[in-house]
């Protein structure tokens, strides 16, 4: 029986053909998930991956403890496996844990406290483009555009600050608003300050010189 020798070049050609046959030219666009906070008056902190939770069960220290939310948004406690916690307030989670523990404990009373404060991605505020330090920021109650600019260190010398855009999901639709960073930061025009909501995206373009 004759054996066919495959050269390194032929091997690479065969591999690229296999990969090319399975590839696609485009990927589906990522979904910008709407925040559950629609106004500055209804903000409640939501638990997210990376948060540290302390779950206290009254008179049941053996099932109490500290837990870190996994990347999949779940935790595992002494009696409850793979409990989904992302997107819940601490109070909502406490009620859910009570419901699960009631299968094993009579009338459990649970409190949940949070540390770390990472939160879900849908609640973070993102600044991209010509900011001094563009990044994602954990939202804080009553955060304004000026607070956001302080967090990212302002804008660069190449930025078109008054051409900046704020992207926000409103009633399930992506809306675009003009914001005026030059007026706010360099001119000190406080009327250019606006409220920021969880999930907002601030885009700071480069100026055309």
Key traits:
22% strand; three-stranded antiparallel beta sheet; 4 helices; 209 residues; alpha+beta; five-stranded mixed beta sheet; 20% helix; Outer membrane lipoprotein wza fold like; wza like fold
Task: Describe the protein in words.
The protein is α+β, with helices and mostly antiparallel strands. It folds into 2 domains: 52-115, wza like domain (wza like fold), CATH 3.30.1950; 121-204, Outer membrane lipoprotein wza fold like (Roll). The protein is 20% helix and 22% strand. The protein has helices spanning 8-22, 90-101, 145-152, 181-186; strands at 52-57, 65-68, 74-75, 83-84, 110-115, 124-129, 136-138, 164-170, 173-179, 201-204. The strands form 3 sheets. It has a 5-stranded mixed sheet with strand order 7-6-10-8-9, covered by helices on one side. The protein has a 3-stranded antiparallel sheet with strand order 2-1-5, covered by helices on one side.
């Amino acid at each position: 029986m004759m054996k066919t020798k495959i050269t390194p070049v032929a091997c690479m050609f065969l591999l690229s053909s296999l990969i090319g046959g399975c590839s696609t030219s485009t990927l589906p666009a990522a979904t910008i998930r709407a925040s559950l906070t629609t106004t500055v008056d209804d903000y409640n902190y939501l638990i997210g991956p990376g948060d540290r939770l302390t779950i206290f069960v009254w008179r049941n220290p053996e099932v109490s403890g500290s837990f870190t939310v996994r990347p999949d948004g779940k935790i595992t406690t002494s009696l409850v496996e793979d409990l989904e916690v992302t997107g819940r307030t601490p109070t909502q989670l406490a009620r859910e844990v009570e419901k699960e523990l009631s299968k094993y404990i009579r009338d459990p009373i649970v409190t949940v406290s949070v540390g770390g404060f990472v939160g879900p991605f849908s609640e973070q505020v993102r600044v991209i483009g010509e900011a001094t330090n563009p990044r994602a920021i954990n939202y804080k109650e009553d955060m304004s555009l000026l607070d956001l600019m302080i967090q990212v260190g302002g804008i660069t010398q190449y930025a078109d600050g008054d051409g900046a855009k704020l992207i926000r999901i409103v009633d399930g639709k992506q809306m675009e608003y003009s914001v005026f960073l030059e007026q706010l930061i360099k001119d000190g025009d406080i009327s250019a300050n606006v409220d920021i909501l969880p999930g907002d995206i601030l885009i700071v373009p480069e100026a055309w010189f």
